Amino acid sequence: MTPTPRPSLWEYANPVKFMRLSDWLLPLTAWLAAAAIAVGLVWGFFLTPDDFRQGSTVKIIFLHVPSALMAINAWAMMLVASLVWLIRRHHVSALAARAAGPVGAMMTLIALFTGAIWGQPMWGTWWAWDPRLTSFLILFLFYLGYIALWSAIEDPDTAADLTAVLCIVGSVFAVLSRYAAIFWNQGLHQGASLSVAPGTRMDWAYKAPLYVSMTGFGLLFLALVLAGTRTEIRARRMKALINRERMQG
Amino acid sequence: MIALLARDLRLAMRAGGGFGLGLAFFLVLAVLVPLGVGPEGGTLAAIAPGILWIGALLACLLSLDRIFALDFEDGSLDLLATAPIPLEGVVAVKALAHWLTTGLPLVLAAPVLGILLNLPGPAYGELVVSLLIGTPALSVIGAFGAALTVGLKRGGLLMSLLVLPLYVPTLVFGAEAVSRGAQGLPVATPLLLLAGITAGSTALLPFAAALALRINLR
After folding, report:
1. Mean per-residue pLDDT over chain B, rounded
2. Domains contained in chain B, number
3. Structural domain containing residue B79
4. Does residue A142 belong to the interface with chain B, where contact is any CB pair within 8 Å?
5. pTM, rounded to two decimals
């Protein structure tokens, strides 16, 4: 009797298994994301009190913080997926990193725009060269470079390798830029809104819908990456089929 | 390796266009900026540190595609990759050659252009020192960007998109050192951070660049 193999995450590096898994996981995460974002935003926008100083502008936090969170985490996910690709050569991983790029770039843009909309009434300016704002803009540039390199190279494996190397080097320089920006200019932006440290400054009336909205954005990111990865896998299969036809014909 | 360095330097000198081009660009920029922002000494003095550093950055960027592209086209890069010296060493030597032909002339020319931009007196030492410390990082980071895009037909524009964000920390610390020098503040901290970036990228980026070159030559 052969021992049954222990179930492992690496099984889903097999495209067929990944497709089978994402077949039901994608609609599930998509609907959960829609539900969580709808609940979080409706709760946040209509059922929370106005802040005593910021008035109703405070409510943009339910878009701003989750998108900023996902903008950074999307890059972290790309870094992990790139390392997995370079070390274990699983194609699904490289394609997932590719799918995460545009999503992360959009999240960065949403965070920048909602921040500008909030900053106009609160700080009296759409944009300030504050370290946090600056490093987000630089992060956006890194996303642009990453996406551009993917689309510039024709051979898919070369593109996956080179973008993975860029992602690793870029991560180091993105962190360096973050601290360079702090060194360069003291900022306007308040500190972290949420913190695991004791003495948190935010009331649960805001925190609860914010957590729901953050969960929704996380699920939205997952669903978009799954959808993008599935598209890439299908595109690869189609290319392989066309090539096979051509060889036989 | 020394032979390779000598070869690269000779090629840069004799091929024309490569050696003086970055320098000429630097000069043109230093002439254009006062024409654009007006000749008031105070304004120019305030922006001179930043303009000089950005000029150095762009002048470096202009000549980056020459690091690997010509050797890639005529096939000598394949020979270098199979040569007994490691490819990491080849990258380091080529970055050094790039620095000697682009970075070092910029360092020497910067004080003259500082006069054109009305850079305040005490900042000249910091300008030269910060460029001397910082421009090697520009060459090494640029060599990495050039290695990533060497296989592309028109990689120049893409390379600037990839390389310029990587130049951010170098620019911040370099320009900060000069402007602190101009205000008579202590400059040790930004200079040390700048040196750290140069040391770190010189130590690590040749490996990343060599990896990218191997992928491109596959």
Report:
1. 87
2. 1
3. 2-217
4. yes
5. 0.88
